[in-house]
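Customer escalation, tier 2.

The customer says the design service returned an amino acid string that "doesn't look like it belongs to this structure." They asked us to rerun it and document both sides in this ticket. The original C-alpha coordinates are below, unchanged.
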Protein backbone atom coordinates (compact mmCIF):
# COMPACT_ATOMS: atom_id res chain seq x y z
CA UNK A 1 0.00 0.00 0.00
CA UNK A 2 1.07 3.59 -0.62
CA UNK A 3 0.90 6.38 2.00
CA UNK A 4 -2.79 6.93 1.21
CA UNK A 5 -3.61 3.24 1.58
CA UNK A 6 -4.20 2.55 -2.12
CA UNK A 7 -3.08 -0.80 -3.39
CA UNK A 8 -2.22 -1.27 -7.05
CA UNK A 9 -3.52 -4.48 -8.52
CA UNK A 10 -1.11 -6.81 -10.28
CA UNK A 11 -3.77 -8.26 -12.58
CA UNK A 12 -3.85 -6.55 -16.02
CA UNK A 13 -7.67 -6.68 -16.25
CA UNK A 14 -8.44 -5.35 -12.76
CA UNK A 15 -8.47 -1.72 -11.68
CA UNK A 16 -9.09 0.15 -8.47
CA UNK A 17 -12.19 2.27 -9.02
CA UNK A 18 -14.57 4.11 -6.78
CA UNK A 19 -17.05 4.78 -9.61
CA UNK A 20 -18.23 1.83 -11.70
CA UNK A 21 -18.06 2.37 -15.47
CA UNK A 22 -21.39 2.54 -17.29
CA UNK A 23 -22.32 2.88 -20.93
CA UNK A 24 -26.05 3.04 -21.46
CA UNK A 25 -26.09 4.29 -25.05
CA UNK A 26 -28.85 3.82 -27.59
CA UNK A 27 -28.96 4.73 -31.24
CA UNK A 28 -31.64 4.30 -33.86
CA UNK A 29 -31.94 5.28 -37.46
CA UNK A 30 -33.27 4.48 -40.84
CA UNK A 31 -33.38 5.62 -44.40
CA UNK A 32 -35.71 5.65 -47.37
CA UNK A 33 -34.25 5.40 -50.87
CA UNK A 34 -36.45 6.07 -53.89
CA UNK A 35 -35.19 5.67 -57.45
CA UNK A 36 -36.84 6.57 -60.74
CA UNK A 37 -35.76 6.35 -64.37
CA UNK A 38 -36.56 9.66 -66.07
CA UNK A 39 -35.46 8.37 -69.46
CA UNK A 40 -32.63 10.88 -69.86
CA UNK A 41 -31.24 10.33 -66.30
CA UNK A 42 -31.77 8.35 -63.15
CA UNK A 43 -33.18 10.20 -60.14
CA UNK A 44 -32.41 9.06 -56.59
CA UNK A 45 -33.80 10.49 -53.37
CA UNK A 46 -32.27 9.40 -50.06
CA UNK A 47 -33.92 10.48 -46.81
CA UNK A 48 -32.28 9.45 -43.51
CA UNK A 49 -32.98 10.03 -39.81
CA UNK A 50 -30.79 9.02 -36.87
CA UNK A 51 -30.87 9.57 -33.12
CA UNK A 52 -28.35 8.72 -30.42
CA UNK A 53 -28.71 8.99 -26.63
CA UNK A 54 -25.67 8.74 -24.37
CA UNK A 55 -25.67 8.05 -20.63
CA UNK A 56 -22.13 7.10 -19.63
CA UNK A 57 -19.87 7.34 -16.62
CA UNK A 58 -16.31 6.42 -15.74
CA UNK A 59 -13.71 6.72 -13.03
CA UNK A 60 -11.32 8.79 -15.14
CA UNK A 61 -8.32 8.33 -12.84
CA UNK A 62 -9.06 4.64 -12.02
CA UNK A 63 -8.33 5.09 -8.34
CA UNK A 64 -10.21 4.27 -5.15
CA UNK A 65 -10.57 8.01 -4.41
CA UNK A 66 -13.29 10.39 -5.61
CA UNK A 67 -10.88 12.54 -7.59
CA UNK A 68 -12.02 12.42 -11.22
CA UNK A 69 -15.38 10.75 -11.77
CA UNK A 70 -16.96 11.77 -15.07
CA UNK A 71 -20.55 11.62 -16.38
CA UNK A 72 -21.68 12.24 -19.97
CA UNK A 73 -25.26 12.77 -21.10
CA UNK A 74 -26.03 13.63 -24.71
CA UNK A 75 -28.75 13.47 -27.33
CA UNK A 76 -27.91 13.74 -31.02
CA UNK A 77 -30.59 13.96 -33.72
CA UNK A 78 -29.72 14.02 -37.42
CA UNK A 79 -31.78 14.41 -40.59
CA UNK A 80 -30.36 14.23 -44.13
CA UNK A 81 -31.86 14.53 -47.60
CA UNK A 82 -30.08 14.01 -50.90
CA UNK A 83 -31.40 14.33 -54.45
CA UNK A 84 -29.15 12.93 -57.14
CA UNK A 85 -29.23 12.74 -60.95
CA UNK A 86 -27.11 10.11 -62.72
CA UNK A 87 -26.70 10.08 -66.46
CA UNK A 88 -24.58 10.10 -69.58
CA UNK A 89 -23.70 13.11 -71.70
CA UNK A 90 -22.21 10.72 -74.29
CA UNK A 91 -20.97 7.15 -74.50
CA UNK A 92 -17.73 8.29 -72.83
CA UNK A 93 -18.92 11.03 -70.45
CA UNK A 94 -20.91 10.05 -67.34
CA UNK A 95 -22.06 12.32 -64.50
CA UNK A 96 -23.62 12.48 -61.06
CA UNK A 97 -25.13 15.81 -59.93
CA UNK A 98 -27.08 16.57 -56.82
CA UNK A 99 -28.21 18.53 -53.81
CA UNK A 100 -27.63 17.62 -50.17
CA UNK A 101 -29.09 18.94 -46.90
CA UNK A 102 -28.25 17.94 -43.32
CA UNK A 103 -29.61 19.14 -39.96
CA UNK A 104 -27.98 18.06 -36.67
CA UNK A 105 -28.98 18.88 -33.10
CA UNK A 106 -26.77 18.06 -30.13
CA UNK A 107 -27.64 18.58 -26.47
CA UNK A 108 -24.83 17.63 -24.11
CA UNK A 109 -24.11 17.79 -20.39
CA UNK A 110 -20.72 16.67 -19.05
CA UNK A 111 -19.82 16.63 -15.38
CA UNK A 112 -16.72 15.72 -13.39
CA UNK A 113 -16.76 15.12 -9.64
CA UNK A 114 -13.39 16.37 -8.39
CA UNK A 115 -14.20 16.51 -4.68
CA UNK A 116 -11.23 14.36 -3.70
CA UNK A 117 -8.77 15.95 -6.15
CA UNK A 118 -6.09 18.05 -4.40
CA UNK A 119 -6.36 20.89 -6.97
CA UNK A 120 -10.15 21.00 -7.12
CA UNK A 121 -10.70 23.51 -4.32
CA UNK A 122 -10.65 26.93 -6.04
CA UNK A 123 -11.34 25.53 -9.54
CA UNK A 124 -14.50 23.52 -9.01
CA UNK A 125 -18.08 24.56 -8.56
CA UNK A 126 -19.52 23.60 -5.17
CA UNK A 127 -19.22 20.93 -4.04
CA UNK A 128 -16.12 20.07 -6.07
CA UNK A 129 -17.80 19.50 -9.44
CA UNK A 130 -16.93 20.88 -12.88
CA UNK A 131 -19.67 20.85 -15.49
CA UNK A 132 -20.32 21.89 -19.07
CA UNK A 133 -23.70 22.09 -20.73
CA UNK A 134 -24.22 23.13 -24.32
CA UNK A 135 -26.37 22.76 -27.39
CA UNK A 136 -25.23 22.74 -30.98
CA UNK A 137 -27.18 22.98 -34.23
CA UNK A 138 -25.77 22.45 -37.71
CA UNK A 139 -27.43 23.09 -41.04
CA UNK A 140 -25.40 22.05 -44.07
CA UNK A 141 -26.33 22.67 -47.71
CA UNK A 142 -24.37 21.32 -50.67
CA UNK A 143 -24.43 21.28 -54.45
CA UNK A 144 -22.20 18.73 -56.18
CA UNK A 145 -21.26 17.31 -59.55
CA UNK A 146 -18.98 14.38 -60.40
CA UNK A 147 -17.85 13.48 -63.91
CA UNK A 148 -16.07 10.56 -65.46
CA UNK A 149 -14.68 10.82 -68.96
CA UNK A 150 -13.34 7.69 -70.71
CA UNK A 151 -10.45 8.49 -73.05
CA UNK A 152 -9.94 4.78 -73.70
CA UNK A 153 -10.74 1.43 -72.16
CA UNK A 154 -7.71 1.83 -69.87
CA UNK A 155 -7.62 5.57 -69.18
CA UNK A 156 -10.37 7.59 -67.47
CA UNK A 157 -10.49 11.06 -65.98
CA UNK A 158 -12.58 11.73 -62.87
CA UNK A 159 -13.35 15.32 -61.91
CA UNK A 160 -15.95 17.15 -59.92
CA UNK A 161 -16.94 20.11 -57.78
CA UNK A 162 -18.74 20.52 -54.48
CA UNK A 163 -19.99 23.74 -52.94
CA UNK A 164 -21.03 23.58 -49.27
CA UNK A 165 -22.50 26.11 -46.85
CA UNK A 166 -22.42 25.15 -43.16
CA UNK A 167 -24.31 27.10 -40.52
CA UNK A 168 -23.27 26.29 -36.94
CA UNK A 169 -24.80 27.54 -33.69
CA UNK A 170 -23.36 26.67 -30.28
CA UNK A 171 -24.88 27.85 -27.01
CA UNK A 172 -23.63 26.91 -23.61
CA UNK A 173 -21.01 27.01 -20.93
CA UNK A 174 -17.72 25.16 -20.82
Amino acid sequence: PDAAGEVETSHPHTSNQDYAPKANNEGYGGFLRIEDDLGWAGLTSIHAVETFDQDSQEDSDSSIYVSANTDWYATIDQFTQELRLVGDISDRWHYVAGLFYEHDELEQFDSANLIGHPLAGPLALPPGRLAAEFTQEVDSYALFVHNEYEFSEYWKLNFGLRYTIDELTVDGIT
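Tier 2 assessment: The sequence is consistent with the input. The mean pLDDT is 86. The radius of gyration is 26 Å. Sent an explanation to the customer and offered a walkthrough call.
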